[in-house]
Structure formats: structure tokens, C-alpha cells
Amino acid sequence: MLEDIYNFLPLTDRLFSSGMPTGAQLKDIAQAGVEVVINLALPTAEKALPNESALVEALNMKYIGIPVEWDRPTGQELQEFMDAMDAHRHQKVYVHCQANYRATGFIALYRIQRLGWPTAQAFQDVRRIWNPDDYPVWKAFLADHLPK
User: Fold this and answer.
1) pTM for the full predicted model
2) Do 36 and 91 contact (CB within 8 A), yes or no?
3) Which of 49, 71, 108, 109 is the most exposed place for a label (fewest CB within 10 A)?
4) Which residues are paired to 9 by β-bridges?
């Protein structure tokens, strides 16, 4: 069940996020009708699946890996993520990282920059999982990518 995935959040009927899924949970994700999996974790992350791209593709889903280093997120990675989200906006998309921190942060910025959401509304889902104020690198990164 999707609800068993670490820090799982159903965001809309076509957008989901979580921490690192297991191989069995990838099957649940596919059975839920997800068409695209975006992984923001490093391949060396704890509990990372060494063959995640092959597992995802074997389940007939598209795999997009955008490894974001926790201590050094970049605007280029955010741009790649936003472009991937735009390219697949009419599909069911599953975004994950190690703990659903990077994923919810990037999704919030996507909602603000590309979908025009108010900042407070976009960050409600982030705060369901974590508080960026506790992580100075991420607090600064998120603030730097808000519209001025």
C-alpha cells in the first residue's frame, strides 16, 4: 500500500511524494497508475535501490533521476525538476527522495514558480513532513528561489 511508504503524501490525484520506496513498493506505485517516477535522492543514499531505474522501467513507468546533494542543492537541479514536471504535467507523477524533504521542497517551489500558488499554501505540504528552518542550507535555498 502506498500509505506504507516512508513519509508518503498524496498531493493531488496525479501527484504523490515520499521518502525512499522499496522494490515491492515500486510495484504498488505502478499499480496505482503512476506513469513517471522522479528520484531526487543520490544513488548512494541510505536504502537507495541500486537498480531503481531498471525496476521502474520494468514496471512500465518512466524513470527520471535528478540526484540532489542534501548539503548542496542547485538551481540547475531545480530547473531540471521543473522542466520534468512540466513535461509530464498531464500524467501521474511520483516524486521521491530519501525522506521526502527534497521532494516536498522542490514541489513547493514548482507550485509557486510554475503554477502560481501562494507561498504559504505551497509550503503547507512541506511542513507536514519537515521544517526547513531546521536546515539552514535548505532554508536559504528555498528562500533564494522564491519570486522576488
Assistant:
1) 0.97
2) yes
3) 71
4) 17
